[in-house]
Amino acid sequence: MKSKPTQSGDGLSRRHRQIMDALYELREASAEALRARLPNPPSNSAVRATLKIMEDRGLVVRKERGLHYVYSPGVARQTAQTSAIERLLRMFFDNSTERAMVALLGATQERMTADELTRVQDLIEQAKRRAQ
Where do runs of H (alpha helix) occur along the chain? Predict the structure, then answer.
């Protein structure tokens, strides 16, 4: 019996996320080109079926190009990122930006450079000014 696809915090299965990541990088690609980029690639028909589901959900756009179809993201990366963050906030942090930032900084502080920390600090200062 197959296991259920792992869902990421943005509501996409791992395979959907892999396809979206490839499409954001390539901008557009055929099903064959996408399949070639996937780890442990499924069959051609499985990729096409997944793309059809994603098209029905508005995640990808299909265009006819000669004798083939090419796919492109149906959602801008920034929009997808915002949606994923909002869903993560609801699911794991009780809609608390503070809790999410504490968790994120705790998990990444050793990997952040001084410049990155300064940029985060600047963004926090800007947010403080807007809140006044």
Answer: 14-26, 31-37, 44-56, 77-93, 97-108, 114-131
The average pLDDT across 63-78 equals: 92
24 vs 59: CA distance, rounded Å:
11
**Residues comprising the chain, all counted:** 132
Same domain as 71, residue 17? yes
Q: Are residues 89 and 100 in the same domain?
A: no
Do 88 and 100 lie in one domain? The reply is no
Structure tokens at 33: 């080109």
Mean pLDDT over 107-131 rounds to: 87
Residues 92, 70: Cα–Cα separation, whole Å: 36
26-39 average pLDDT score: 94
Distance CA 69, CA 52 (A): 12
Residue 1 buriedness (CB in 10 A; 0-12 / 13-18 / 19+): exposed
Is the pTM of the predicted complex or chain greater than 0.85?
A: no
